[in-house]
Amino acid sequence: MGLAPFTEADFVLSKEKRADITAGLTERQAFMVNHWMDLHEVINRGDWDGMDAFFNTDTMTYDNPNRPDLGTYHVWKTSPQGLYKTFPPSIYRTLKAWGRGEDEICVLCHHHGKHTGGPYMGVQPTGNDLNVLWFSWLRFRGDKIDHIYSISDVLTMLKDLEVIDVPQPVDPYK
Questions:
Q1: Do 80 and 44 contact (CB within 8 A), yes or no?
Q2: Report field, pTM of the whole predicted structure over 0.85
Q3: How far apart are CA 95 and CA 90, in angstroms?
Q4: How many CB atoms lie within 10 A of CB 172?
Q5: 3-class DSSP state for residue 173?
Q6: How far apart are alpha carbons 43 and 51 in whole angstroms?
Q7: d(CA 37, CA 43)
Q8: 116 closest CA partner among 91, 86, 79
Q9: How far apart are CA 72 and CA 144, in angstroms?
Q10: Torsion angle, CA of 4/5/9/15, rounded to 10 degrees?
Q11: Is the pLDDT reported for residue 1 higher than 50?
């Protein structure tokens, strides 16, 4: 998967790591990325009421080609809640960030957990690791998140969780 070895402690980003992630961004862009990383800390604790403060909950929208059912904030919020229960410890971190203008950032993130909390897509808990990389494009309105577009490595996730078998070609062009 290309991830360097990590521990759960790597999901609590130090001040220095946050500064490295936001290096080169404008002050406003760094604010937005830090807002996103602060949100991860809240979600990693399972503070579902606390996460509301990070969003324009009445207007926030979510797009993901793999989850077209999660369009509004209140519906999308059920996804991290379900993941938290199904893949404890279900923790998130930001790995890289980019900015554009005063209201947009893009982040590369990592979600880790273990399939021990309950069934996922009909598969009973396997104890397998969940290590998903994903990109999110975030748009802010004021100081809160108003839109998220995410795309993740669902194929590897489903393979690792034994939901599907994925043939691994030596050379796919032969």
A1: no
A2: yes
A3: 16
A4: 7
A5: coil
A6: 7
A7: 10
A8: 86
A9: 15
A10: -30
A11: no
If you write DSSP's letter for every residue of 18-37 in order, what string do you get?
A: HHHHHTTS-HHHHHHHHHHH
Contact (CB, 8 A) for 118 and 85: yes
- Return d(Cα 143, Cα 120) in angstroms, integer: 35
Residue-wise pLDDT tens digits, 40-76 = 999 999 999 999 999 999 999 999 999 999 999 999 9
Contacts of 113 (CB under 8 A, 6+ apart): 83, 86, 87, 88, 89, 90, 91, 129, 130
Beta strand 144-152 pairing with 61-63:
parallel
The answer to whether residues 141 and 59 touch, using CB atoms and an 8 Å cutoff, is yes
Distance (Å, whole) CA 143 – CA 156? 34
Task: Give the separation between CA 61 and CA 75, rounded to whole angstroms.
Answer: 10
Domain ranges of the chain: 9-159
The one-letter code for the residue type at 121 is M
The CATH architecture one would assign to domain 9-159 is: Roll (3.10)
